[in-house]
Task: inverse folding
């Protein structure tokens, strides 16, 4: 289309549950995102992958709903997860995806990773507003009652005493201790 498609995806504990306020089953929601994303040219992938059996193969995939959903989930996580939770989740995702790709859905290691992922999603509830347009999936807003984002704190101005910029000097010095020690012991200081 020549005009953007605007949608809102609602999440409850990390699970997408509604589009534009209409509750849907997971299958129906993904089907609708496939339709909306596909109409806007979103989600075509052309890649060369390393197969489990040891060969390289080229794959061309169309995953409009998955592309839209991933962007929305990441936007929701950006305000609901703390930095270390996001980093840990990002670290295990390639292994998690590899296990599923290779057919190990029922493996104990996949189930252990799933428990960790589920734990990170306990506070990922809210809404993500998006614009779908000519192959682009653009997050235009996000909100959550359990958001970790605090505008007063992040402004570095009138934060009512939540953050003192003078504390950064000691923090920086402490964080650099490891590097100063390495430099001194290796003759670079």
Result:
């Amino acid at each position: 289309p020549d005009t953007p498609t605007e949608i809102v995806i609602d999440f409850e504990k990390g699970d997408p549950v509604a589009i534009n306020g209409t509750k849907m089953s997971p299958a129906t929601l993904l089907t609708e995102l496939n339709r909306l994303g596909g109409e806007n040219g979103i989600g075509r992938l052309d890649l060369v992958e390393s197969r489990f059996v040891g060969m390289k193969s080229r794959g061309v995939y169309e995953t409009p709903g998955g592309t839209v959903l991933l962007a929305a989930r990441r936007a929701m996580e950006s305000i609901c997860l703390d930095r270390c939770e996001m980093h840990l989740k990002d670290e295990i995702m390639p292994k998690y995806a590899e296990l599923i790709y290779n057919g190990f859905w029922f493996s104990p290691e996949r189930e252990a990773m799933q428990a960790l992922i589920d734990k990170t999603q306990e506070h990922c509830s809210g809404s993500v507003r998006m614009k779908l347009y000519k192959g682009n999936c653009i997050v235009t807003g996000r909100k959550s009652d359990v958001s970790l984002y605090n505008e007063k704190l992040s402004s570095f101005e009138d934060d009512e005493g939540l953050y003192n910029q003078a504390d950064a000097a000691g923090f920086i010095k402490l964080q650099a201790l490891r590097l100063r020690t390495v430099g001194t012991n290796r003759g670079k200081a």
About this structure: The two ends are 60 Å apart (CA to CA).
